[in-house]
Design goal:
The chain is built from ten helices and ten strands. The chain is globular and about 45 Å long. The chain is an alpha/beta fold and 248 residues long. Strands 6-7-8-3-9-10 form a six-stranded mixed beta sheet, sandwiched between helices. It binds adenosine-5'-triphosphate.
């Protein structure tokens, strides 16, 4: 890993239900302030990798049985999910998971649960998030269950931002969204990256879009990294074109 890596995943193995080996030694790293794409087909192990980092596997009867996860120079693989968030690393789950019966604003406020810095600071951050996501400002008093898929994805990212993270693990933000909306969301992700210095690990099946915004990519196949490199190189790679970009 690069010396400036903020996240280093070192040869992790994950087993579900004590017998199903799903990650067979995955290593990757995210440089400070980077956007790194984790690519691969449905079932390759992207979600499992993200959940291994944020320690969310126990609820799914999954376990990291080998390897380590180092965040900002310290091991986090023995921490609780809550402690991982407090360290500054937060996951936005696939499928967005907004609370449908709460308004957009209430959803955003739930993201501040780890904070102890008072209402004024939280209020200021809420306004800052509305500046990044003008659509959320418009919809702030709507129940999230009645907003569009794109707005719910924005809400999920905005809620993660409310914990003041230095790193966001973003699981398949493009899922089920029109290309134009995906682009809108990735533009905001890039803006958060550049202006707030938040690093991103972005799990995506939408290889094309992910490699447009990421600087580096890893390709997973059945629980192993089969290729990695700078995004530009991956976009030009013939195998990637054939298998993941559909432009053989
Ligand atoms: P997706 O795009 O569907 O999220 P993915 O690349 O993120 O795909 P994972 O969800 O990490 O893949 O799944 C990797 C493998 O682990 C799949 O074969 C899946 O069936 C298996 N798996 C996932 N969760 C569990 C579980 N709780 N118990 C057993 N097997 C699981």
């Amino acid at each position: 890993p690069a010396p400036d890596a903020v996240l280093v995943v070192n040869n992790i193995e994950v087993i579900y239900d004590h017998v199903i080996l799903v990650l067979k030694g995955v290593s990757l790293s995210v440089p400070q302030g980077g956007i790194v794409a984790l690519l691969g087909a449905n079932g390759a192990g992207k979600t499992t990798t993200l959940k291994a980092i944020s320690n969310l596997l126990h609820a799914e009867r999954g376990e990291v049985t080998k390897g380590s996860v180092v965040f900002e120079g310290q091991r986090i693989d023995k921490l609780s999910p809550n402690q991982v968030v407090r360290r500054g690393c937060i996951q936005v789950l696939e499928g967005r998971h907004c609370f449908g019966h709460l308004t957009i604003e209430e959803n955003l406020l739930t993201g501040a649960f780890t904070r102890r810095d008072g209402n004024a600071a939280i209020k200021a951050d809420l306004e800052a998030i509305y500046d990044y996501f003008p659509r959320l400002r418009q919809r702030r008093h709507s129940m999230s269950g009645y907003t569009s898929g794109g707005e719910q994805q924005m809400c999920a990212i905005g809620r993660a931002m409310m914990s003041r993270p230095t790193m966001i693990l973003l699981d398949e933000p493009s899922m089920g969204l029109a290309p134009q909306v995906v682009e809108e969301i990735f533009e905001i992700v890039q803006k958060l990256n550049v202006t707030q210095g938040v690093s991103f690990l972005l799990a995506e099946q939408n290889t094309n879009m992910a490699l447009k915004y990421a600087t580096y990519g890893y390709i997973l196949e059945t629980g192993r990294v089969v290729m990695d490199g700078p995004a530009v190189g991956l976009r030009e790679n013939e195998d990637v074109k054939e298998f993941y970009l559909g432009v053989a």
